[in-house]
Amino acid sequence: MPHHFVDLATWARADQFRFFRTYAQPHYAVTARVDVTRVMTQGKAAGVSPYRACLFAIGAGIHAVPELCMRFRGDTVVRHDTITLSMSVPLPDGNFNYAYVPFRPDFAGFDADARRLIAAAAAMDGLQANSGQRDDLAYLSCLPWLDYTSIDNALPGPDDCIPRISWGKIVENAGRRDMAMTLEVHHALVDGRQVGDYFAAVQGALDAI
């Protein structure tokens, strides 16, 4: 996928990158409440899938924050133009496969692609897991059974810098609908400010659908 090399000589976060690259446990996760009232009322009434609306909003949030599109390969950092969303797809037997949906900024087009590619993944044999050959991804998983307060993801090691996003059960809260959402990132690439920017962009996308 198209990407650009990040010049460490001019990158404002180069010192932080080098510092956190030495950590054995460099990942951290932040959970926040996300308002989905509009999606669950106006959107759902118009035929919008709340699940795919959340996928789109997550993609919009990722692409609004350049650091979430960055990946390192050793001491080299690249920034991808487009991130593909890889989500777990439940199967009738209780297992799951992975689907891969490239993000596009128009909801209607993204929604059509997501519907088609998720259905195709549900019909495939085998997990279709990324074996490490690509890093232009973000890993997504929905936990609709739980209104959770925090979550950690399985990670293969300190060099994995692909963001993980999870979200939980939609619940009514003071007349509104909201849910927990978690962003897990590598600290060598992403600080708290970028996490805040991500959640703001996700909320903006949900409110615009």
Descriptive account of the structure:
- The structure is a single chain.
- The chain has 209 residues and is α+β, with helices and mostly antiparallel strands.
- Helices cover 30% and strands 29% of the residues.
- It contains five helices and ten strands, in the order E-H-E-H-H-E-E-E-E-H-E-E-E-E-H.
- The strands form two sheets. Strands 2, 5, 6, 7, 8, 9 and 10 form a seven-stranded mixed beta sheet that branches. It has a three-stranded antiparallel beta sheet with strand order 1-4-3, with no helix packed on it.
- The protein is globular and about 50 Å long.
- The model has no long low-confidence stretch (mean pLDDT 96).
Quick one: overall form?
globular
Major pleated sheet: 7 strands, mixed
Give the ordered list of helices and strands: EHEHHEEEEHEEEEH
| Structural category | alpha+beta
- The number of helices is 5
Determine Rg (CA atoms, Å): 17 Å
Low-confidence stretches: none
Mean pLDDT: 96
Q: Please provide the count of β strands.
A: 10
Q: Bin the strand percentage.
A: 25-35%
Helix percent band = 25-40%
Descriptive key words:
5 helices, globular
Question: What order do the helices and strands come in, and which of them pair?
Answer:
Elements: E1 3-5, H1 14-20, E2 27-35, H2 37-45, H3 50-63, E3 70-73, E4 76-80, E5 84-90, E6 96-102, H4 107-122, E7 137-143, E8 164-168, E9 171-173, E10 176-186, H5 192-208
Parallel strand pairs: 5-7, 7-8
Antiparallel strand pairs: 1-4, 2-10, 3-4, 5-6, 8-10, 9-10
Helix pairs in contact: 3-5
